[in-house]
Amino acid sequence: MADRVVRVLVGKPGLDGHDRAAKVMARALRDAGFEVIYTGIRQTPAQVAQTAVQEDVDVVVLNNLTGAHLEVFPLVVEELKKRGRDDIYVLATGVIPFEDVELLKEKGIDEVFGPGTGPIHIINWIKEHVLGEKQGE
Amino acid sequence: MRNKVSKKKRLVLTEEEVFRRLIKGDEVGLARALSMIYREEASSSLLSRIYAYNAEKKEKAKIIGITGAGGVGKSTLISVLAETLLKEDKRVGVIAVDPSSPKTGGALLGDRIRLQHLFPNSNLFFRSFSSRGMVGGINPFIFDAVSVLEAASFDYIIVETLGIGQDEIDIVHMCDLTALVIAPGLGDDVQFLKSGVIELVDLIVMNKADLPTASKTVGILNSYTRMVENHPDIVKVSASKKQGIRELIAYIDNKWCELKNTGQLVERRTTRWKFQVGNWMRYIVGKKIHGFVERGEVKPKTSPYEIAISTLREWGCEV
Known about the structure:
The complex is a heterodimer. Chain A has helices spanning 20-31, 45-55, 69-82, 101-106, 119-130; strands spanning 7-11, 35-38, 59-64, 89-94, 111-113. Chain A is an alpha/beta fold. Chain A has a single domain (7-130), classed as Rossmann fold, CATH 3.40.50. Chain A has a five-stranded parallel sheet, with helices on both faces. In chain A, β3, α3 (69-82) and β4 form a beta-alpha-beta unit. By secondary structure, chain B is α/β, with parallel strands linked by helices. Chain B folds into three domains: 11-57, no CATH class; 59-261, 3-Layer(aba) Sandwich (Rossmann fold); 275-314. Chain B contains twelve helices and eight strands. Chain B has helices at residues 15-23, 27-38, 44-56, 74-87, 140-151, 171-174, 189-194, 197-200, 214-225, 245-261, 264-295, 304-314, and strands at residues 62-68, 92-98, 107-109, 124-130, 156-160, 177-182, 203-206, 233-236. Chain B has a seven-stranded parallel sheet, with helices on both faces. In chain B, β7 (203-206), α9 and β8 form a beta-alpha-beta unit. In chain B, α1 crosses α2 (27-38), α2 (27-38) packs antiparallel against α5 (140-151) and α3 (44-56) crosses α5 (140-151). Chain B is globular, with a radius of gyration of 22 Å.
């Protein structure tokens, strides 16, 4: 059997054209040995979810920098559920205030990576949860 | 951060479920079949079932290969092709191959971006694959992936490969017909002289034909294709301006029907099947060779050829 290659979708739901962070993150995840599918900007939650299903990814990393995360991120979770794939991890990234973290988790987001976290934190989280590799501090 | 998150259990489908769901065109089943094949988790019986199922099918999908250098507009062209076909209520499946990193094996797969605006759509399926560092453009997994899409009853299956259009010719063995996409101002006339791909493709799509330099490139191309027996036609389009797309589809449809009616389609698919046998043999033996070389002893006083021959004979190859 070939080595298990982790597939990650980097999605930008919502009306947000700021894609530098998403692109840097996509590249960092690629350099970590993952197969990264990038949707491009201004996606609807349904577009992100259908893409995740078709690409059979392990993780969806959502990014939004406009403050719409409380609205659009949970909709992606719902759309995945509708398609029978709520087993896919959903991570939230972007300018997310600390007080929104629990709200997002209550709505099905598995982890939140707000300001101050770097790609390495996301990479380690994915390796731990998908590959079961415990990462050192 | 608090460690409240419990681990999710990844959806598991048996091969039976995968098969039943994919022939109904179910996206979850179809996507999983492709993952199983690409991860070498599928048993050979799943693939045998898919091949047997396809052989019995009356309605064949039109398998169209799209190749060409980076930046000529392959993805944009596929996007407008898909958009037009979807308007005609056709089911379209797309497979796109992007390079993987030779260092980490990771890959950034961005071919979807050009047609994300067509989603959500239940008649459109798109899957991105990494090349896994295999040269020649195509690896055996991509080949089998096309057969999986065929079983899911798409009207059109479009395969997009990376390729500079010189050596990456495996795609023509994989598809019913293959188009080489070119754009004005890329490479000089010697590129066309060198290229073997012109002898093999069924048509040349001149993209960005709205640019003023397009007619010059077409002129140069014409002078070379004329030297090739059964040379491919040149179809001019502008993908970004959506010009010439219906004409291109009509050309493809006519050509495909012509192949079908003259028996060439059966011939091509037989060649395709044989080629895939060879693909798998190369892949399997290649892996064995790779393992041998990695752990092999170094004997600088012996010629490498000597070691190669004696090892292959040890493995029972009559060489």
